[in-house]
Amino acid sequence: MTILVTGGAGFIGANFVLDWLAACDEPVINLDKLTYAGNPETLASLQGDARHQWVQGDIGDAALVSRLLVEHRPRAVVNFAAESHVDRSIHGPGEFIETNIVGTFNLLESVRGYWQALPKGEMDPRVCGDDKALTQTAFRFLHVSTDEVYGSLAKGDPAFAETHRYEPNSPYSASKAASDHLVRAWHHTYGLPVLTTNCSNNYGPYHFPEKLIPLMIVNALAGKPLPVYGDGMQIRDWLYVKDHCSAIRRVLEAGRLGEVYNVGGWNEKPNIEIVQTICKLLDEMRPKADGSYASQITYVTDRPGHDRRYAIDARKLEAELGWKPAETFESGIRKTVEWYLANPEWVAHVQSGAYREWVQKQYSAS
Ligand SMILES: NC(=O)c1ccc[n+]([C@@H]2O[C@H](COP(=O)([O-])OP(=O)(O)OC[C@H]3O[C@@H](n4cnc5c(N)ncnc54)[C@H](O)[C@@H]3O)[C@@H](O)[C@H]2O)c1
Predict the structure, then answer these.
(1) Which ligand 1 atom lies nearest to the CA of residue 202?
(2) How many Å lie between the centroid of ligand 1 and the Cα of residue 80?
(3) Closest ligand 1 atom to the C-alpha of 58?
């Protein structure tokens, strides 16, 4: 058995592939367009590993996706591929519509064609390493989405449950919301065996340093300002990336068809607190001569339409599937800061653009 992962060179997708192959030998076909956010260096440890196969390509390329599906006969598709940065979606929403909506539509159509051609039957090879024959019943399409589709909460509002109405506020969240609706419709209309996860903000190793936590660590170490939007009191709910990966594995294994599972670790924090925590950890682990890193904090004009608060109610996933995060925010953020201190080369290659050269070298021959 094999799984097809899309967007597996990005932050969460790459962590997922590494975790997957650490946990079992089931091969992964990794389809990634390798946009600026795709960094194959993250998976350098898998070079030469026959269980992992790169394919550079677009989820919207129906001919390519259909060929991969027929050739590799995956038992599941896990869709991480997306444009994911809110600020970029404000400055240029077109790519977000193209990949997150049109791309997901094309992917769903390719997958539907493949799935409909599978034999009907009851065999269930969903457990990692199971080698029973693949059937329509056993196949899964897991769509990875975000809590941002639910919009913004006021102070005191209950956290987002799966039944919360969709109220996306940015081009990013609107495009993800549209993709969630398509996935839902492909289940209800065509019977495609789908699962959707809506997760809160992730953090951890291999996070592209344009997002809050890695940006703060990297800027702090470089002696640069730590830019905090507005009053810094925007609240996000944080989950260590490996806990997100374990939730996806669990939903893939045991989730009920057509269901949505919210994923979160009950870790609501205002952005300014996150930045202060990072400064404190750096003060401890890499003290600087001239005082605290907190002196680099600089407040900047807020992002337009900036959502005030996100919070995830993960009780369905916990109660139904028995999932629990392994990390607290305190342990996860400590591991994250340690990882960035231990991996300056990965950061330097992202910042210099050297990781793009790796991509070009890798694919220039093919
Ligand atoms: N980062 C978070 O905090 C978070 C939280 C909840 C949900 N999500 C969702 O999880 C998924 C992964 O997020 P991430 O943070 O790893 O994103 P990312 O931007 O780090 O990675 C996205 C990956 O998708 C690839 N990609 C982009 N367009 C593609 C296309 N058309 N075809 C194939 N590949 C394409 C990119 O090259 C990149 O490798 C996204 O769907 C995102 O909406 C992210």
Answers:
(1) 3
(2) 5
(3) 32
* Confidence label for 133 from pLDDT (cuts 50, 70 and 90): confident
- Both tokens of 200, joined, read 């809160």
214 inside domain: no
Buried/exposed code over 224-233 (b: 16+ C-beta within 10 A; e: otherwise) = eebbbbeebe
**Does the residue 212 lie in any domain?**
no
Q: Ligand 1 in contact with 275 (CB < 6 A)? A: no
According to the model, what pLDDT value does residue 128 have? 54
Q: Is the CB of 84 under 6 A from ligand 1?
A: yes
The DSSP result for 50-61, as a single string, is TTEEEEE--TT-
Q: Is residue 230 part of a domain?
A: no
Q: Whose CA is nearest to atom 11 of ligand 1?
A: 80
CB of 243 sitting under 6 A from ligand 1? no
The domain of 349 spans 3-204+240-266+311-326+344-363
> Which CATH number covers residue 23?
3.40.50.720
Atom of ligand 1 nearest to the CA of 8: 39
Dihedral in degrees, nearest 10, Cα atoms 111, 116, 122, 127: -10
Q: Is 266 in the pocket of ligand 1 (CB under 6 A)?
A: no
Number of domains in the chain: 1
Report residue 294's pLDDT band, with 50, 70 and 90 as the boundaries: very high
Question: If you measure from the C-alpha of residue 294 to the centroid of ligand 1, how many angstroms do you get, rounded to a whole number?
Answer: 30
Beta-carbon contacts of 92 under 8 Å, excluding residues fewer than 6 positions away, are none
Q: What is the mean pLDDT of the chain?
A: 94
Question: From the CB of 38, is ligand 1 less than 6 Å away?
Answer: yes
Check pLDDT > 80 for residue 210. Answer: yes
Least confident of 66-80, 118-132, 349-363: 118-132
Question: With a 6 A CB cut-off, is 40 part of the ligand 1 pocket?
Answer: no
Give the model confidence (pLDDT) of 295-311 as tens digits. Answer: 999 999 998 989 999 99
In a domain, 132, yes or no: yes
State the Cα–Cα distance between residues 183 and 141, nearest whole angstrom: 9
| pLDDT of 84 strictly over 50 | yes
